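Sample pair:
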Amino acid sequence: MAATDLDLLAIGNAIVDTLLHADDEFLIQHGLAKGTMTLVDAARADQLYQASGSGIESSGGSAANTAAGFALMGGRSAFIGRVANDQFGGVFRHDIRANGVEYETDSAKDGSPTGRCLVFVTPDAHRTMQTYLGASIELGPEDIDEAQVKRAKILYLEGYLWDPPKAKVAFLKAADLAHAAGRKVALTLSDPFCVERHRDEFRQLVENHVDILFANEAEICALWQTPDFDNAATITRQKTPLAVLTRSEKGSVILAGKQAFSVQAAPVDHVVDTTGAGDQYAAGFLFGLATGRRLDSCARIACLTAAEVISHYGARPVTTLTDQVMARFS
């Protein structure tokens, strides 16, 4: 096996997030279903953007957030995702590199503009997202750098990007390259609605291409079509070598062959914004895994990184775990 100089290579939607404060009246006025993510076209995104107040813009997207969080902990990460050669594309490229992530995907010279997500955060910390995917869904197998895949210990795939046909081909190409090089492939199911759209294909992915599966309670129950989490967990441990199942305030469950761990959620004084909690949980867990820690230690690191991100606005950490804290998790 060739030596690696990357711990993590993430592939997903390249999107610029705009975080906006909103009240329930604004959501009702504009017909937004509170607490959901809705795909919109460019015109609708522009309309909502003009109707809202000032916001905070930063590069986003689920897998990109994980890569950024991973790098901020001191890990070596890279990201593959498509942006256009426009203002938002420039914001995305600058931000993700500033976070220490290797990002070399070429900008699209024509076609759709860079994707963006308007994240309306209400005073009760709920987030309502209106997402225009734009150039991000034009990712194809030509964007997969074989040498880069082989350099990374873990390949991390974002379920949100399974919708476009070209992206599916890109995912499978990357997974095959990773396994041929002796690397691990991780997948996050991303969203229960995503699972509902692609259940049969996701099942095949999990059974045939995935070494590490990330899912929350709703997603894993949707995957196996059961309302019972324990039943879903039993099925999951038969399908993939390592499953990481999160349950919000109930903590998380780690399944690896005959091993099973339940880890409590880290306490948070005040939940401000749940945006990015799953992304940063994955970042913490994968960082622990890439640095050789025990599975229960990986989960405890992940709980801390998730707790940090929900204590402030935004999907990426503003503080990182100290060396003293990390030393507790062998």
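The radius of gyration is 19 Å.
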